[in-house]
Structure prediction request, 519 residues.
Amino acid sequence: MHKILRDVGNAVAKFGAVTLFFARVLMQIPRVLLRPSLVIYQVHNAGALSLVIIMTCGLFVGMVLGLQGYDMLARFGSESALGSGAALALLKELGPVITSLLFAGRAGTALASEIGLMRVTDQLVAMDVMAVDPFRRVVAPRFIGGVIAMPLLTMIFIAVGIFGVQLIGVQQLGVDQGTFWSQMRGSVQVHDVWEGVIKGCVFGVACSLIAVYEGYTAEPTAEGVGRATTRTVVTSAVLTLFLDYIITALML
Amino acid sequence: MTMTNDNLVELRDVHYSVGGRAIFKGLTISIPRGKITAIMGPSGTGKTTLLRLITGQIHASQGEVLVDGQEVGKLNHRDLYAMRQRMGMLFQNGALLTDISVYENVAFPIREHTKLPEELIRQLVLTKLQTVGLRGAYKLMPWELSGGMARRVALARAMVRDPALLIYDEPFAGLDPISMGVVLRLIRKMNDALGITSIVVSHDVDEIAQVADLSYIIADGQVVASGSPKELKADKSELVRQFMNGLPDGPVAFHYPAPDYHAELLS
Prediction:
């Protein structure tokens, strides 16, 4: 019983710490944006370097969606709805959520371990003593890089996913090309696209924040960095799915 | 406070504790301008903590820490950062930024704090690297350097903006005799050529005796001896004798506190 209370207490304390950390990062953002080269480099790190995994997985997810979707819709005789069904599924749920999980796994761990290792090797302390604020130089650019990259990666995932659906549904399973696209255009509304974009942005903020937080507060040992990286992925995954529910409930 | 002060750094009756354990109990140290001052002492006496008090990373619970007349513990963030720009610190493991080259590491303080043009930065960086003998290595990455080389690059970085105070945290730890000699020579050369003040934390007694003008030995949270290396060698107190001659037992006990040996073995 005591342990449960203590765990809850720890969770609340951590939530508070993360919020304060978030505020500190936000305060640095205006000044960081005055040095776009730092941010651009981080967008490249978090975004461009994640493209391969995002596009590959997007393609496979789309292809599986095509297969499963066709199979399920065929039971009700609605194969022609494959385009709209798959597009909506990708736009509203699969795109943002899976991209977020992949992002946490690839970019999130890279961010956390980079910052964690800088702490272990005293680089952050050295910067502080050289009168360079590590928040402004190291943490905030990485955070902004992640926040910018995530929605873009989400959009790319969705686009490649739809291509994958089309590849299976139209080319292989014989859904009519015209039906596929026109049905999609008919049923997908701007509201749905917004849902995907907003989720992408919110997940981006959440995953980037957790990654830089865990890296910055990692214990300065090898195990500490390892644990921080693990926590990044786990917390990002749970938070993503939780926020997914919240946003879906709010937007429907 | 405005009288001409010969001491760049002064600690007056400083008290500092961590988790209930007192690290400093009334420490008073003066670091004279333009000289090399050594801080020595047995392991765990808080020599690195002392450096962190001087750079303002931690604050004393009692007493004053003055750098150039300003009390470090009372400075706001901006003034603290302004003061830190006039100090250079050499960390024990170099603490180079591992994602950038030697050149970029040395250029880092210039790029962060000034808007000097590229040609001028290049001149400054190459000059400082030349001083430490690593001008040819400017393209290397930190992981390609040996320990001694990394420390020399860190030294170049620490002095690239010509600070008034240079702090060395255990600069000789883990170095081979040649590298040690190189670093020793550099410390003396920097101090004399640039007219700066140096603080060296070390427990390499023989090495530091070659370059220090003034030495302090800290133990039990206070200064137990101070003076030139010659004076310390002649000091009669037991603790100083044990430290300077590397005797395994004395006031700093060899045995960690434990119950009676025979009783424990035979129980």
